[in-house]
Each structure stands twice: as C-alpha cells, then as structure tokens.
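TEACHING EXERCISE
Course module: macromolecular assemblies
Task: Read the component lines below, then compare them to the predicted structure of the full complex.
Student: A.B.
Group: 4
Components provided:
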Amino acid sequence: MTKVATRFAPSPTGPLHIGGVRTALFNWLFSKNQKGSFFLRIEDTDKERSKKEYKKQIIQSLKWIGIEHDGKEYIQSEKINEHKKVAEELLKKGFAYKCYCSEKEIEEQKNMAKKKAMAFVYNRKWREPKNLTVPAGVNPVIRFKSKIGGNTIVKDLVQGEINISNSTIEDFVILRQDGSPTYQLSATVDDHLMNITHVIRGDDHKINTVKQKQIYDSMGWEVPNFAHIPLIHSNEGKKLSKRDKASTIEDYIKIGILSDALRNYLLRLGWSFKDKEIFTLEESIKHFALSSVGKSPSRLDMSRILSINETYIKNINEDKLFLNLKTYCEIYKKKIDPKFDSTLKKSLHFLKNKAKTLGNIYENAQYIIKDQIQISSEDLKLLDDLAKKILKEFLKEFENIKNLNKDNLEKIIKGLIDKHKINFKGVGQPLRIALTGSKFGPGIYDIISSLDKNKVIERLKMIK
RNA sequence: GGUCCCAUCGUCUAACGGUUAGGACAGUUGGUUUUCAAUCAACUAAUCGGGGUUCGAUUCCCCGUGGGACCGCCA
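Instructor-supplied answer key:
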C-alpha cells in the first residue's frame, strides 16, 4: 500500500473561503485518518490576481482552525518548467497540438455556441491541419487532443461514478499563447509530482477531472483517487461566493467563533457519523470517512454555528477560554486592561453561560472591564423612587457586611423583599441595573461577588 | 440551451428493503417564588410527484418536477 497523500490547492487571490476551509479540513482529516500526509499547494499562476499576503493569510487561517500541512508549501509557479516539459512531451507523443486560431475566431465560436444555446466546444480546427497554412507572427496555444468518441469514466469516492461523453469535452488549452501552462495541465502535473493519492475537492471540479484523467492516461501516469465533495450553499441556495456576507473565515473569527466550534460545524456539514454532533479533533480524525460524505449540497446555517460555538464556549477549559477572549478582544474589540484580568477570569464561569460568541462575553463583561458603567436612559427609567430607596437601604446594610458571601447577601435581599412586600425582581432588577448598566446579565449574586466590595458601593452611590 | 449531479422536518442529517421515519439547530408553549441570549420539560414539523420491481419501499429502476454545478488562453 502506498502512503496516502492529500492536498489542498487554493489560489492566493483572496482570503480563505469557508468552503475552502471545509475542503482543506476533509483533505486533512482523511489523510490523518489514513495515517498519510497532507500537503498545501499554492496555485499562484494567475500573476495578476495572486498576492503574497493572501498566501500568508491562507496558511494562518488553516493553522487557526487546527490544520497544518506537512513539509514546505508547494508553490506552483516554481514548477512551471515541469509543466511545460509535459506539454512538450504530449505534443511529441501526438496527444496535443498547436492551435493558431485567433482570439477573434474563438470568440466567434463562443458566440455561435451561445446563440445555438449549446455548450462551447472548440471546433478542433487545428487538430488535423491538413489544408491549413500557419499564419505568420502568431504564437499558437497548445491544445490537448481530447478523445472524441466514447465516454470517460472516473470513479469517485463520494459521487460514485462520473461518466461523461467525450464528445462534450473540448480540446482544452494546456499552454497559453505566452507559453504559460493552464490550470488543467499544472494541477495534473503537480498532483503527479507530489504523489497525491487522493484528490479531494469541490464538486465544481468534476468536469475538470474528466479532462485531467486524459492527461494522466496519455502520460501513462497512475490516476489518483478522486472525491468530489458537494459545495456549500449560501442561504439563497447558490454556490457560496466571495460576495456573500459571511463567506470568509475571517468573518467568523471576528464575531468570536471558536476555532474548534467552526471546525466541528464544518465537519458536520455534508458529513455525519450516526447521531453524533460534537466531535473533538481526535474523534473527528478517528471517525472521518469519505463514504459518509453526503452527495447533496448543504446550506450555511448561522444559528447552528452559534449554537455549536455556545457549546464549545461552555465546555472548553476556562484558562483557554480566557486567553482566547483576551486575544480576541485585543484584535477585534478593545484591549482589556490587565488590571481587570483576575476579576474577569473568576467571572468567566458564569459569563460563559450566557454567550454564544466571544463577542457576547465581551459585551456582557463590560461592567467588569470598565471603570465606569453607562446606564441607558430606558433602564434609568426603571429606577423609580421605590427602586432608589431600596438601593439605598441595600447599600446601608451591604456596607456593614463582613463576609461577602451568598448567605449574607441573601439575608439583606430577603429582608428588603419582606419589608417592601415585593418580589425578588423588585430588588434584583435595580441592583443589576445599578451595578452593570443593563437589565440583562448574570445572576445578581454572581455580579456582586465578582465585583470588589468597594466597587459595588461606589456604583450604588452613583445612583441618586 | 448542452453536459453532469442532487432530492427525508425551515436547516444539518440518521434510518444502506421491514422503525410509531430517529437526532440536532431553529420555532412554539410552559416551569425555573430574579432578568434571559442560561436551564429544564413538552409540542409543532419531513420521505417532491407519478409509475414500476417486491409479500413489503425513504431505501432499487424509469419518467416528470424542482434545485445545483460546469460550459475561460481563471483556478
């Protein structure tokens, strides 16, 4: 058995797409499950649009979600000569030919195809150039001599069998007029050079597979296994594009989604293992199989992402959560003053219970990480005369407390409830507003015990 | 339009010929003598339609319908 090798091959023309992340994840998971390797190939042959910073960003994004590639990243543009060599060889062997058609001619053919409402298939004019004279001063493109009759069948580990009539596959270009290789050639040669055993990629590459298989066959190379995973659709049910709102990984990081949560969500999108919903990294490696990847596309569902994130926020180690929160706030919100660290840390155990994102924790922790709180005018209205009176009475007794614990606080509050013949809310709500500036939030005992005694007194005194 | 693919609750999915069609998210309702975005409980909700095959079809086959992908000298 040869060692399994997979690859993720993004082009660095933009930030990493959420669909790309899932493709990378499936590749990585499969290779780990098979005890194989996972490589990263940067397809940067589109010089116009490829950017170095995107390459960095892609690697960082993958790392963020827990994916690291083996070895050094493979840079496609560095292998262009290899690709050209293969093109030459195909030419020599008669599997490719030079095409001198002008762009105009091709354009006309495309228009014709459109008019006839047919798929564009190049008319193969130069395939057998018997009565043609090579025009002077025209650089030819090299086209692959695609099979005309019969069908090409590719076994697919997810789709089953891809069976396409060769008549619909055109003689595609493998070398451009300027001599540079096209995707079909480069990707194929690279996969061969890298000894890739399993090509796992988006559904949108299915037709390419048929083209690429012919290159493998012509070169006498072993054809890798293919697995085309269904695409992720937007809310509208279309292929997710960069224009969609939450399409890049950054979009999720910035609202405070945890990497494990996103990984878990993406894993369960199009893949399942019994009724299990939550998978640790180890579990996902252990159970991952291409055979349990579904065939139909799935929609992105924000509420589910949030729900999984909530689960992770509640369950991960608190020290880890704390560090996550700190870095998150520093980058996407506002740096938290270290003087609040200890209070914040000991409050995390209840703050995390009411948050779906790190952003939520940040919002709910405002009363801890700011010296002064702000009360909205609407909440201020809730502090009527009775409420203020209660706060004053609470303060008086609170100042005399020796041991700040729940029992003692309970005593004070109970006393006030009895005295004023009100319910808990009558005391709890004014307190919460006075201490946090919000009528929502953690339990009142949690709030008080998380704050310094002096801080509580100070804030209660602010209410007049 | 051509080629190819797909089809179970609103969403993600389970059931690989025999289940009262299961779970999760969302939604709704109620409890939690304190808020709710927490928690607990309950409820609503699906096999796209029509033909076969079969003792029996969500499952296999065909047709229709709907949705999607591709149709670059981009990757």
